[in-house]
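step=encode ok
step=design start
structure_in=
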């Protein structure tokens, strides 16, 4: 009987830029449990939104209109954040760009996104780390806000007295591989550059 080595396809893309930079495209942490929770929440949110709007437009004049309007605004904002979290779970991605001076992390859902730039000289202790627990059955990361989807990740580094993470959709082995690629691309990770991968 012949044995075949099973190799998993990496869930990330590594691209070398024309200007000598490095670009990593990483998936979000796709979690069926969290995706279903957000999906069901959005269906219920939609029903409640329609009901409250209907009450405001066609309800009795004796109802507390100011309270309903304030509640509707707050509920709509929470629903918008839930839509964003659901889309992040389904189609989000992280794009990490590394040039001579800066590591930039862009988290995006389609064209909508946000970025953070970090000086490589001020970064230290780039290492693989366990993903923070998150989900409806472990408090949605209530004890650590970084566990919330986009801020979570298996690659961590220290920067100006805080720990930052990325690589939410990869595992620790993939994180170790990407850290080696980042280190091969050049130094400049401050005092932590010599620290071994944990």
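sequence_out=
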């Amino acid at each position: 009987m012949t044995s075949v080595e099973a190799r998993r396809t990496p869930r990330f893309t590594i691209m070398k830029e024309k200007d000598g930079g490095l670009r990593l495209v990483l998936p979000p942490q796709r979690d069926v449990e969290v995706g279903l929770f957000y999906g069901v929440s959005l269906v219920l949110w939609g029903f409640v939104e329609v009901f409250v709007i209907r009450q405001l437009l066609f309800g009795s004049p004796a109802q507390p209109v100011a309270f309903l309007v304030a509640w509707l605004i707050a509920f709509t904002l929470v629903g918008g954040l839930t839509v964003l979290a659901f889309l992040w779970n389904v189609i989000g991605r992280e794009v990490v760009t590394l040039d001579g001076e800066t590591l930039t992390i862009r988290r995006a859902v389609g064209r909508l996104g946000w970025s953070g730039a970090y000086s490589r000289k001020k970064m230290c202790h780039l290492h693989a780390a366990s993903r923070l627990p998150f989900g409806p059955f472990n408090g949605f990361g209530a004890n650590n806000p970084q566990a919330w989807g986009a801020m979570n990740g298996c690659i961590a580094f220290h920067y100006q007295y805080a720990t930052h993470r990325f690589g939410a959709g990869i595992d620790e082995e993939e994180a170790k591989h990407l850290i080696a690629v980042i280190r091969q691309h050049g130094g400049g990770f401050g005092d932590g550059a010599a620290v071994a991968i944990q």
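step=design ok
step=annotate ok -> The beta strands are 13-16, 22-26, 92-98, 102-109, 112-119, 123-128, 155-159, 162-166.
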